[in-house]
Amino acid sequence: MSSYSKASNGEEQQQLVCVTGAGGFIGSWVVKELLLRGYRVRGTARDPADSKNAHLLALEGAKERLTLCRADVLDFDSLRAAFTGCHGVFHVASPVSNDPELVPVAVEGTRNVISAAADEGVRRVVFTSSYGAVHMDPNRSPDAILDETCWSDYDFCKQTDNLYCCAKMMAEITATEEAARRGLQLAVVVPCMTMGPMLQQTLNFSSNHVARYLMGTKRSYPNAVAAYVDVRDVARAHVLAFERPEARGRYLCIGTVLHRAQLIAMLRELFPQYPVTAKCEDDGKPMAKPYRFSNQRVKDLGMEFTPLKKSLYEAVVSMQKKGHLPVIREQQRAYL
Known about the structure:
Layout: E1 4-6, E2 12-14, E3 16-20, H1 25-36, E4 40-45, H2 54-57, H3 62-65, E5 66-70, H4 76-83, E6 88-91, H5 102-119, E7 124-128, E8 145-146, H6 154-159, H7 163-182, E9 185-191, E10 193-195, H8 205-214, E11 220-221, E12 225-230, H9 231-243, E13 249-253, E14 256-259, H10 260-270, E15 279-280, E16 292-293, H11 296-299, H12 308-321
């Protein structure tokens, strides 16, 4: 599939696609990637005129091929209006929070998106899930390979107050069921902890996570492992999943799995002049071991992953430029 489609008069025209939550960390990069590939893009926002969406209008190709429209996932009519004439929809919008209200909102919002897309004749939807819907299972063997067949344990997520994971699980299941019912093609991208440079001005969750370790404001780091991926890779995965006609189902988007100590060591090596958090929360347990995972399905679509060190470096530089981090110069070492 290319960014062009045949018009009724036989002429080729650039495909129109819609991105929900266009102004967010991942949404912004999806918009940028689509514009670079020649698509006409309609981005949804609760308030398109808000200055927090200004960065989208400054993207290359935005002047000619990007429009922002007002839509809310709980307002069905606003979604139908946003999807009119679209060949595809990227449903990226999702709040990152642990609010108990998030589960019904995520489920209802997703049902609305799929239903509105089907009503408007959209052929293909790419849905952004989260590895919170995949890896939270205390009964998974440490030797097991995390892949697209894995699901989090809903009851465990609920008991441990991981309501964001509950919301993403239920939203993904809803998207899958509704798409099958309405005859829509659906591909699901499952990103993990997403790192890298910000396009938007406001600080997002994962960038803030890096900033707090870099500045030492987080006093200690946990004896835990996590999966990481570059935000640009996540955006590329969305577009690859849209452009490959055979792409269906889940695509785990993980670049690497590291112990938090390795992430901290990387930050300290890149930015020795910063007061990087140095202390591990000693929970008395042996060091958590990184688990094995498979990202083969997304690689089969043509995906290549960015090294985490590059993502971290560019994340910090972008936060410095946007005024979220002080610029601390590395002192010249005195040679005797």
